[in-house]
Design a protein that fits this description.
Helices cover 37% and strands 26% of the residues. With 155 residues, the protein is α+β, with helices and mostly antiparallel strands.
């Protein structure tokens, strides 16, 4: 198997979106590679056994928990404001019996520059081990607004 999704869709009679989704899953499972310059996929087993997608889906337990907060509608985005070149995000997250109000300050590249939260993870680690699940929940909720307003170019 090698080819561009449109070619493969035409040869197989499947919808191009279905072919693209299947090829993306094959890449994630380590069974195919994508050549960026040509825009083509190629079959190539990276390991004997498919890669465990469930364990590779999130970079940290905090990312997994953040998505759970968002899906359960326990997280709210309360503020998105510009502060010069930076953007401040505020939100609230209900986590069990506790409610947290994380704040994030993003730089021009939309990366977390500063942040605060009242949770134990943040109190013990600050941002040394990355943001807590509450901060990531607010960031996830803000993505639509952040992508709607493109980042300012840095000269």
């Amino acid at each position: 198997m090698a080819g561009h999704p449109a070619e493969l869709a035409e040869r197989t009679g499947l919808a191009q979106a279905d072919v693209q989704a299947a090829l993306t899953l094959w890449v994630q499972a380590g069974r195919a590679v994508f050549d960026l310059p040509s825009g083509r996929f190629a079959w190539r087993e990276l390991s004997r056994e498919p890669l465990p997608l469930d364990s590779l889906r999130f970079a940290s337990p905090e990312e997994e928990q953040a998505l759970a907060h968002v899906h359960a509608r326990r997280a709210r985005l309360t503020e998105v404001t510009e502060h010069g070149e930076r953007i401040r995000l505020r939100g609230s997250v209900k986590d069990g019996r506790h409610s947290h109000e994380p704040t994030l300050l993003l730089n021009t590249d939309r990366q977390i520059q500063e942040g605060t939260c009242q949770c134990n993870f943040f109190t013990q680690n600050r941002l040394r081990r990355g943001p807590c699940s509450h901060m990531l929940s607010v960031l996830l909720l803000a993505q639509a607004k952040l992508t709607a307003a493109p980042a300012k170019e840095v000269a």
